[in-house]
Amino acid sequence: MTEHVQTLLDAVALGSIYGLMAIGIGLVFGVLRLVNFAYGQLVMAGAYALALTQDVSVVLSIALCFAVVLALSLAMELAAFRPLRNASPTTMLVATFAISYLLQSIALVRFGAIGKILVVIPQLTKPLTIGSLHVRWITIVTILVAAGVFAALTLFLTRTSIGLQMRAASIDSETARLLGVRANAVITVAVLISGAIAALVAVILPMAVPERILVTPDYALRETIIVLVGVVVGGIDRLLTATLGGFTMGFLVGALSGFLPSSGSWPFTSSVYLDSAVFMLVIVVLLLRPEGLFTRSRRSVVDRV
Amino acid sequence: MRALEDVTVELRSGEVLGLIGPNGAGKTTLVNVVTGFDVPDSGSVELEGRDITAWRPHRRGRAGIARTFQGSRSFGGLSVRENVQVAGLGVGASPREARRRASRLLDLLGLASAAEAPAAVLSHGQERKLEVARALAIEPRFVLLDEPAAGLPEAEIPQFAEVLRTVRDERGAGVMLIDHNMALVMEVCDRIHVLDRGRTLAEGTPRDVRGNLDVTAAYLGESAIPEEGQPDADR
Asked: Is the model's pLDDT at B215 over the cut of 70?
């Protein structure tokens, strides 16, 4: 019983991380209609910043991580996204593929293929024991941080004027611009928030996911792909549905890897068939609800009073 | 083919100018040219003596020229109030001022009871009114309304005429009104400009224009064609 609770909590934490990444990807998609495949490389850059400075001091290391990721996000926006503002979504997607592989190659040349061990705050990986239940602190912190980010972002989008303009630009950027909404300002803010979330993920991921303790050039790439699938499955048009999609994928991965047997002879180990199981569910969902798992049916939007 | 040929229209502060004519007369094209959505091959657009022909639409918006569209351009996922707020914020109003304007305009247009509803659920007529509220939220000096009363129940027309007079008298704005509801146009407009196939057919007071039989023929001859479902018929 307690084992199941632990597995579920871990799955919720993994879902929270994927949900955070989905927010970061969904926010930029909203204002730019751009699927940022290079999002994982922002996390990678942040993780390297942490790994290379972790001997100095935790605070400084985390500050540097945020600085690096925010600077890189801004550079992406200025050097790649902005020049491609009027390009087709396909062109923009391919451009982010290029950025992704460029950054991976730079990391490979600069830091080598052998990973660097990263534990940002060792205390957080220790377990908290309640009765027979052992939960690592990072699991709890991750869930709380993700919930906090989601709540703060919801307040930001609904209560602040830049947030309101961001939502308007997400719905119809052309009309928003005609109404005087400064598109570049709104987009820059969205890109920076998205970057800050990537930096946060870079801090949390190596502690929360044991196999992610090793920072390599392709760090967070697998997560990005699964999150992108989750975002599409959830419904990319709205931030909430995209976030729920990301969360669901993370939760599924976490729960399946916990509940499916992880040992045994090949191919009966979860590490082998986990992806097959997850993506089979994805195919089923997309067949049944191609417009997104969490989107309301089209009819309710069209129905007018 | 030229959509407009040798047409000169002047919109003054503190007046309501009606722009009428059959489908394809060039009414929407004229609005597009004035607001910067279409760039004329020749001719110019001036704002208080300044040549603004090369200005982009949003720059004209900040300079005080607002418009509505025939098709719906409201942000369906935002509330009615937020739709109006965004327009105020867009021209640089403070958040508090944008909220104040939104409340005042929703009251003025009779949308206060629907303020918190998502714009997507509005009826066609309400949506037209939201478009007007949003155009007015930039506190324009000139506002061009492209069929704002389409879809409005006949009973609400007098109230809507009152809104236009308020905008003209209290704000001193110049209003250009395109509408097929001739009763509304005749009642509320100070001057009327009649277009037909891209040319000026007549201009003058409603009384002058009504007396012009050519106008009546040109207008009534084609006004039977329903406008609904072909929002860009004039382009």
From this structure: no
What pairs with residue A128 in β-bridges?
A135
What is the Cα–Cα distance from A273 to A150, expressed in whole angstroms?
32
> Number of C-alpha atoms within 13 angstroms, CB side, residue A187?
18
Contact A54, A242 (CB under 8 A): no
Along chain A (305 residues), what's the average pLDDT of each consecutive run of 10 residues?
86 96 94 92 97 92 97 96 90 94 96 90 89 90 97 93 92 85 91 98 94 93 92 86 93 86 64 76 82 64 35
Burial of A181-214, coded b for 16+ CB within 10 Å and e otherwise, reads: bbbeebbbbbbbbbbbbbbbbbbbbbbbbeebbe
Q: Which of B89, B120, B124 sits opposite A161 (nearest CB)?
A: B89
Q: Is the ipTM of this complex over 0.85?
A: no
> Which residues are CB-contacts of B154 (< 8 A; sequence separation ≥ 6)?
none
Give the best residue of B34, B60, B89 to mutate against chain A (max A CB count within 10 A): B89
Distance, in Å, from the CA atom of B111 to the CA atom of A78, rounded to the nearest integer, reads 41
Residue B57: cis peptide before it, omega within 30 degrees of 0: no
pLDDT value at residue B229: 38
- What is the model's pTM? 0.83
Range in A69-73, A99-103, B14-18, B36-40 the model is least confident about: B36-40
CA B54 to mean position of chain CA atoms: 21
Which of A119, A127, A134 minimizes the C-alpha distance to A210?
Answer: A119
Enter the tokens of residue A107.
Answer: 């990391």
A175 in contact with B, Cβ within 8 Å:
yes
Report domain extents, chain A.
Answer: 2-219
Of B58, B62, B75, the CB nearest to A171: B75
Contact flag A165-B73 (C-beta cutoff 8 Å): no
Domains and CATH numbers, chain B: 16-71+132-219 (3.40.50.300)
